[in-house]
Write a structure and sequence with these properties.
heterodimer; A: mainly alpha; MetI-like fold; B: 434 residues; alpha+beta; D-Maltodextrin-Binding Protein, domain 2; 3-stranded antiparallel β-sheet
Chain lengths: 314, 434
Amino acid sequence: MGGGRAAQDLHLSTERARVSRLTRALESEKLLATALLAPATAILLLFIAYPFVMALWFSLTSIRVGDAGEFVGLANFSKAIHDTIFRMAFENTVFYTFWATIFKLVLGMWLALLLNRHFRFKRIIRASMLLPFIIPTVLSAFAWRWMFDPTFSVMNWMLYHAGLITDRMPFLSSGDWAMWCAVAVNTWRGMPFFAITLLAGLQTISPDLHEAAALDGAGAWHRFWHVTWPLLLPVTLVVVVFSVIQTFSDFQLIYVLTGGGPANSTHLIATYAYQIGVGSGLLGEGAALSLFMFPVLFAVVWVQLRFLKRMDNA
Amino acid sequence: MAQFSRRKFLQYSGVGMAGILAAHRAPVFAQANSVHILRWNDFVPAADKVLREVFAPEVMKALGLKLNVETVNANDIPARATASIQSGNGPDIFMLLNNYPHLYASAAVDVGAIADEVGKAQGGIYAASAQLNRVGGKWVSMPWSVVPAMIAYRKSWFDEVGARTFPKTWQEYHAVGKKLKANKHPIGQTLGNTFGDAPTFTYPLLWSYGGQEVDAKGKVVLDSKETVDSVRFMAQFWKDAHDEGGLAWDDSNNNRAFLSGDISASLNGASIYVAALNGAEKFKTEKGAPLHTDILHAPLPAGPKGAHAYHTAFNHMVMKYSKNAKGAIEFLRWAHRKENYEKWFLVQKGFAVAPTREWEKHAMWKNDPVMLPFRNGAAAQKRLMGYASQPDKRAAEAWNKFLVTVMYAQACSGKMKPEEAVKWAAGELRKIYT
C-alpha cells in the first residue's frame, strides 16, 4: 500500500512539474502568440500560399496535362498579352466588374434605405431579399439561362404577348446583349449582399443626427448626402472591395449563362483561363492568364485600404 | 455508442493526412475490383440505361467487376480529365471525344491488344478512328462509337417551298432556306462554343469551299481566298435562312427547337429523330401526325470543292493512374464483344454507329429506312480536324478554342467582316502551330 502511495505521489509531482513548465511557457507572450497563430498560419500556408506559389511556378513553365514541361520564363505571359481572345476577356472583365459593382451599389443602397424604414412584414421581406444571394449561383444562372433562352425565353414570350415586341430579343445571341444580361444577373445576385451590409451600417447611425439635421431644415436628399453617406462610407468601401474581388474573378455565372460565347464575346479572365488551362490542358498558360487578375485586384484593394486608413486618421 | 474523443480524432486525422501527403495523391475509396467509367450524358438516354442496368450486372456476373457508370455534360469531360490526370486520381476509364486522346496520350494505358482483337473480329477499325486513337504507333484509347452528323429536316415544310429532294449544293440550300425562313420555318444551326454540332458543321463547310486549317506540314494556310469565300457565304446564308439565336446555342438547343416545331432543319446526330420516334405521342406535326413521320436525313451539301462531313468520335481511354487498369481493360474487352456491344448498339437505333465495318451489315439497318444514311457515316469520314496535317494535340487545342466555329460566328454576328474574321482565326491558329 505504502509503495503504491509513494508512486502516486511521485506521479502527481511529475505531473505538477510538467503542468507548471507548460504554464510558464504559455506565460511568455511570444510563445503563446506563436502557439495561437500556428493553426491559422498553417491553414493559410496550405490553402492559400501553396496554391498561389504553385500557380506562379506553373505560369513560368510549359506544363501541360500529363507533362511536367520546362521553365519558359515569361513566355506564357507574353503569349497571353498577344492573345486577342485574352485581351477581349480582360476588357470584358473590367466592363463586367465596373458596371455590376455600380448597379449593385446604387440598387443595394436604395434597397437598404427602403428596408431601414418601418413597415409591415419587415422581417419577412428583409429575409426574402437575401434569396438571390443564398441560392447557389449555378442553379440561379441556369434559371436565368432558361429565361434568356434564344428560342424559348419566357421574357420574349411575355414581351411578345404584351405587344411590346414583334421579334425575339437576342438576349444571349448577341455579344453586347449577352454581356449586359450577365451584368444584370450578377447585379441581381450580388445586390442583397450590398443591401444587407449597408442596412447594418445604416442602423448604427444615430437617429438623433437625422433629427438635428431635419431641425436645421435639411431635406431628405441633404440628410442622405451630408449625414448618411459620410457615416456609411467606410462600410460602403469595404463592401465595394469585396464585391470587386468577387466580380473580377467571377467564373460560375458566365460559365453557365453563356459559356463565354457568342463568339467569345462574354469570356472573362477566369472563364478563358479555365478553358485554356483545364479544358485544353495547357496548365502553364492557364495559370499565367489567371495571374493577370492578381495585380489588378491587389491595386484595387491597396488603394481602397489606403483610403480607409486616411479616413481613420482624419 | 462508442465515444470518439477529440484526441483520437486528431490522432486519426493526423495519420490520415500524413498518409495522403506521403502518397502525393488523394485517397481512393473505390474497391480494387470495381471499374469507374466516366462518359457523357448520352443524347439517347436509353443507352446510359443499358450501361447501368444491363452492362453493370452482367459485368459483375462475367468478370466479378463492379461497374460504376458516371455521366456528365460532354463539354465538362476535358476539365474532369485534366483534374484527374494531375491529381492521379479519378475514373479508371474516360470517354474522350474526337482528338482528345492525343491531348491526354501521356496518361494512357496501351490498349493495342483490344484494338487488334476487335479489329480482326469485326471487319477492321475505320482509318479515321485509328488516326484519332493511335499516338506514336500506340493505341492510347479504344474507339467505341461514332455519331454521324446528318441534316434532319421537315419533309413537308421543304415540300411547301418546292424542295422535293434535299438541296445538293450550298447555293441550293441557301435558296431553299430563304423561302423556309420567309415561311417562319428557319434553319437552326448552332455557332456557339460547344463541342458537337458547331464543329461538325463549320469544318466541313470550310473544306467544301477548299479552305483548310494547315497544310500537310502543319503550316497555317487558313487565310485563303477559299476560306474567305466560305465565311462570306455563311454570313449571308445565316442572315437569310437561319434562326439567328443559334449563335448562343449549345448541342441541345437545336433538338428542342426542332422538336417544338421552331426550325425546319438542323445538322445533328439522329437524336432528334430518335427522340421523336420514342416520343411519338408527344411530338406531333401541326397536322397531328407523329413528328418522326415528317423527318428525313441528308448529308451536308457540296461546295465548290465537293461535299464533306465530320462525325464525332467517342473513345475510351484507360488511365495510367488507375489502380485497376487491368480490370478496366478487361471490361472494355468484354464490352466490345459482339453479343455485348449489340445491346448498346441496338438502343442507339443508328444515332451512334460502331467504329468497325462489321456493324454496317447489322440487321438493324433494315428496320428503318430513315436511319439508313447513318449506316456508312463513320466509314465515309475522310478528313479530321487539323487537316491536312495530323489530328494531333494542336488540332485538339484549336478545336477546344472553337477557332473555326468562332471565325464563322464573328462574321455571322456582324462583329467582323469575313476577311477580318479569317485573318483573326489564322492569327490565333498560328500561335498554336508555331
